[in-house]
């Protein structure tokens, strides 16, 4: 049975870092909306396309899980209802859902986000 990992946490909590590690250790397909948006929209990450991208990634991820591939949805999943819906969908395709919650203090979050924006070059 495949596993769908739901990565839960606020910006700066280390979700993508954790997802990249899990990608290797769990032999899983990692789906990170920010990376897809930047690739699809010429280096931009437009908010008005986020729901569309996430919807397609969920569709791809659930198809992969149905076919036996472990999947990581690196989305944030702040809302309980959203996590519950994804757990239900994973079960419906024959997979189990596992939540990975990454807590962060407000101070650490601010520090990490500031560091990210000062060390990551803006898109061209």
From TrEMBL:
This is ATP-binding protein. It comes from Kribbella antibiotica. InterPro entries: P-loop_NTPase. It comes from the Bacteria. GO terms for molecular function: ATP binding. Keywords: ATP-binding, Nucleotide-binding.
């Amino acid at each position: 049975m495949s596993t769908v990992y739901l990565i839960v946490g606020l910006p700066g909590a280390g979700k993508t870092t954790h997802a990249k590690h899990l990608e290797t250790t769990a032999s899983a397909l990692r789906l990170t909306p920010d990376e897809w948006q930047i690739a699809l929209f010429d280096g931009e990450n437009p908010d008005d396309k986020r729901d569309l991208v996430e919807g397609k990634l969920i569709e791809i991820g659930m198809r992969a899980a149905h076919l036996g591939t472990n999947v990581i949805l690196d989305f944030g999943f702040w809302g309980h209802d959203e996590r519950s819906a994804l757990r239900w969908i994973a079960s419906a395709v024959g997979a189990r859902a596992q939540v990975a919650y990454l807590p962060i203090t407000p101070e650490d979050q601010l520090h990490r986000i500031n560091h990210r924006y000062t060390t990551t070059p803006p898109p061209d």
